[in-house]
Amino acid sequence: MKRSVRPTEQETEETVENYSDMLFRLCMVLLGNRADAEDAVSETFLKYIQYTGEFHEEEHKKAWLLRVATNVCKDIQRFRIRHTHINLDDLRDYCADETESGILADLVSLRQKYKEVLMLYYLYGYKTEEIAEMLRVSPACVRKRLQYARDQLKLEYERGCEYEPGQFTGHCESN
Hints:
Number of domains: 2
Low-confidence stretches: 162-175
Strand content: under 5%
Distance between the termini: 65 Å
Number of strands: 0
CATH architecture of the largest domain: Orthogonal Bundle
């Protein structure tokens, strides 16, 4: 029988240092505001500290953290009913570069299940099978969500979607 082991203080510090920015960007896109994103990241790390399982490799830990953060974001959305206001300036502050900033801004308009698969596939480089395992859906479902999300982003792009400075409402006007 395996012994239950929680991460050491040093392991926890290294994990927070290595993954906090990535998790924050994910949560910011999924939740749409800084306070909720910070809460989600904190909750994710709290679950990590309390986790007594073992990670056989660093990639397993990363996938576990992404899945937990996604689930925490879903919980926050489920229990905090309100109108989401997304400040793109806040979002841009946490992007690695301008390309990522544009992608993240476009992702905001999508429904949750499409944001998740696009971010995991394009921004974090996971394969559809890995995403399916993380989200507990079939690989075919992941591929379909990717296809639908790409189609929606293409449609918005073709319609000439305009962003107001600092805000994104998710609605575009046709030119």
